Amino acid sequence: MTTRVNARNSYRYRVVDVFTERPLEGNALAVFTDASGMDDGTMQMVARELNLSETTFVLPSTRPGCVARVRIFTPAREMVFAGHPTIGTAFVLRDEGVAVGERFALDEKVGPVPIRVEEGDRPRIWLATPPIHSGATYDRTLCAAALGLDVRDLLEAPPQLLSAGNPTIFIAVRDRATVDRAWLDLQGAKKLKGLEEELACVFVFAPTEQGAYSRMFAPDYGVVEDPATGSSTGPLALFMMRHGLVSSSSGTCFFSEQGTKMRRRSILHVQIHGEAGVDGIEVGGHVAPVAEATMSF
Q1: How far is CA 139 from CA 29, 50, 156, 171, 194, in A?
Q2: Which of 4, 88, 144, 295 has the fewest C-beta atoms under 10 angstroms from its C-beta?
Q3: Looking at the domain assignment, is residue 1 inside a domain?
Q4: Has this prediction a pTM greater than 0.90?
């Protein structure tokens, strides 16, 4: 079915870099501040045109208590939840005066996503990770082969699929150098047979003194490698706590460094609430404004 676009329509959007304090690092995001009148097919075409990891479209909320409805698209498909689009859109809505105060919520397909703003010269924005669901575990040898690694490069923790709305297979490796050597293309992804979900991201990380050094591959989503994956970082924290790779005590804070290999260094902060995150896992970071533009079609 062909999507018709109205040539008389113009839509304003902003570009921000998320999980960084420095423009041109972190994960770039386009936010269409008022997407009223734009249909699903057009949203997907726009996301494909911009070709960022994700593009968001702001609409009036359909849920009480939420400041806006946010739809999230990769170049290939719509997401029910994603972290850097949530953080970046929250920043833009606050900057535009749509969201006020230190706490509010965004209406996403996964449900209401609570936002907390840590004030300062450069505010840090936190999201509350949606409920995390555990899936299958995977053979370490199979996972190593899919990533072009030797099984001896992996830690003993069995790779596992976890999802807070974005199904992700977590694979723990020995050090940063191994993370940087890993690679997953479509052929590698096909080696990971028997997935619970039709689609899944693959998240490779090594524990560090600060928390984790990470990379994420999502070829099925049209994203060869993602510079920062907030939707997978809450589940990363749960995976690390379960395997003794980070403290599970309430109040624990650490960060995941991601995107460095692709020269888009991102810092994703994590805060654990309650023992082993029983009271929630927050993921937060800074946002750097980059550009403002209008798209007409």
Answers
A1: 35, 37, 11, 10, 11
A2: 4
A3: no
A4: yes
